[in-house]
Amino acid sequence: MTAMDALWMPFTANRQFKANPRMLVSADGMHYTDADGRQVLDGCAGLWCVNAGHNRRPIVEAIQRQAAILDYAPPFQMGHPVEFEAAEALAAMAPKGLSKVFFCNSGSEAADTALKIALAYHRARGDAARIKLIGRERGYHGVNFGGVAVGGMAGNRKHFPASLPCVDHLRHPLDIARNAFSRGEPEFGVELADELEQRIVTLHDPSTIAAVIVEPMQGSTGVILPPKGYLKRLREICDRHGILLIFDEVITGFGRLGADWAANRFDVLPDILTCAKGLTNGCVPMGAVLVKPAIHDAFMAAAPAHAIEFPHGYTYSGHPLAAAAALATLKLYEDEQLFARAASQQDVFMDTALSLQSASGVKDVRTLGLVAGIELTPWADKPAGARGYAVFQACWERGVMVRFTGDTIAVSPPLIIEPAQIAQLFAVVAEAVEANR
Ligand SMILES: Cc1ncc(COP(=O)(O)O)c(C=O)c1O
């Protein structure tokens, strides 16, 4: 048995886990192998990141090759070819108009980098009064101070009350009473975007607001879908008031919603877009912030030619192994047309997800592309989240890995999933729900 004392695990009930560990020892395609040699169907692409499936040879070999050629290069005042190639490849596949790429190492770093770019951009243009950042209730933008401040998951925030100042939040658009069992964008709730103009812009004055940051689909909080027209409305309001719109596409990027990007699926172009996870298929940590050229150019115009234009970056920005993994991953997405494949599977996926509507105590199913959230009625006599955990554990015991947040089960498999595996995945979730009424 592996010794378990030293490791303090992240976002994990450590004592509960160590009493009954779920250990993954290898992976291939759609499956993990656990410590007992069982095959476990991956129902959540690792952690929303392994979009091309596990242990893909082209990515593994690219990382191995790169490690033997250039292990590390400092990213400040030095460069290496692979990071430039990776940036070109990412810009070429990004929503049109987002052509400048800043690399970091995670979704959290991408969120904080994006917020800093927004603040420094306004300052570079001589509009330094724009210092306020607007997030959304139940939003998740990672765990760094900026991301937690604009994020809206109460359980993540309450432990760190010393947050950033000058932050406000929009309401989240989850409305089960009007939109239960949504297949694709919910019908009702576009007017919630008006809150940005009617309450927040009015209260703060637009001249003080730098940016609005939202996940096009709120993933970590339990799959909250954008109502029809909602994101377009946010875009229009931001445009009217000179506010930057940031899309956090850490989950929604790289095919997850049945399109390459949520920006393209919803036909709304943000000024800044963050991504991570699927950028390297989860193989090597990497995040990126994509911006419109006008934002990048404002930094160039504001600083003397010899000066560092944006004093920000990480020791591992554009790391050679991550850059090689990103290049190989983006090529694999293209070679196998995986985003089109996700789009072709989404109808079966969403229909199968919605078949859980009739399972005991299912309060809502929300599904879009290859994502589904199944919200359960909490157990009356146990703490909130107890039922979600029990269903998650029951799925694991039946050979399927899903996620849970509170009493919502989240499903987001690799994009290579086959129809028979979609059926297996939801059949196991249904069985686990029934076993934990
Ligand atoms: C929308 C979003 N932003 C940011 C993050 C944070 O990413 P990371 O865990 O790589 O820091 C996540 C992680 O799930 C996410 O879903």
Automatic annotation (TrEMBL):
Q: Mind listing the UniProt keywords for this protein, alphabetically?
A: Aminotransferase, Pyridoxal phosphate, Pyruvate, Transferase
Superkingdom is Bacteria
Required cofactor(s): pyridoxal 5'-phosphate
Keyword Transferase found: yes
Which Gene Ontology terms describe the biological processes this protein takes part in? Answer: biotin biosynthetic process
Pfam families associated with the record: Aminotran_3
Annotated transmembrane regions: none
Gene Ontology MF term list: adenosylmethionine-8-amino-7-oxononanoate transaminase activity; pyridoxal phosphate binding
Q: Which family does it belong to?
A: Belongs to the class-III pyridoxal-phosphate-dependent aminotransferase family.
Protein name as annotated: Beta-alanine--pyruvate transaminase
From what organism does this protein derive? Rivihabitans pingtungensis
